[in-house]
Predict the structure of Spermidine/putrescine import ATP-binding protein PotA.
Amino acid sequence: MARALASGSRMLMLDEPLSALDARVRMELRYEIRRIVKRLGITVLHVTHDQEEAMSVSDRIILMRKGRIFETGTPLDMYRSPKSIFAAYFIGETNLMECTVESKRKGGGVILRLRNDVPVNVSKSKANVGEIAILSVRPEHVYTATDGLKAHVRDVVFMGTYWRVRTEAESQDYVDYNIPADSQMPEIGEEVYLVFNKKASRVFKRPKEGLTEAIKLE
């Protein structure tokens, strides 16, 4: 990279520049690369398979699939408002649940039915009433409550700053959620009730090729 910058080029291509480094070094160099690029005012095409790296160094992400541009957007848009199920699944982590759109209210709000006739409310849906759809909810947008989607804890994993809790819901879906590291860890088998952040939930039309093929990684 230093030799390329010394040439005076206004555009650089970095092909997996951090892939062989330890995690801590990669994290530090992400900030350093971004700082240098911003200071010099140059354009960099940064190729990576690391989604976190892509979001932390870029102003705009180009998501490739099968050798073609699949979706583009800012890191924030790609994470919060992905246009496709594949982008929602590939950028970050998400829970995917099959559902049916039961109704849409004129003033906003959508009622979904998960498997086993479990109702869920969200803000909006790309699918129409009566259609089978896919609900996408990221783990940080799933909360425990006194009522909601009944589930049982199947696994708890310590992630450093938080616990990742995996549950098996009454809708026959596995649903993950996060709790702070200083929180009390739930017991395996414990019954919990889950609710979703309505505004942060995304509802996609069920892909014609099926969910498994739609999110398949090449």
Notes: The helical segments are 2-6, 23-40, 51-57, 75-80, 85-90, 211-214. The mean pLDDT is 93. The radius of gyration is 20 Å.
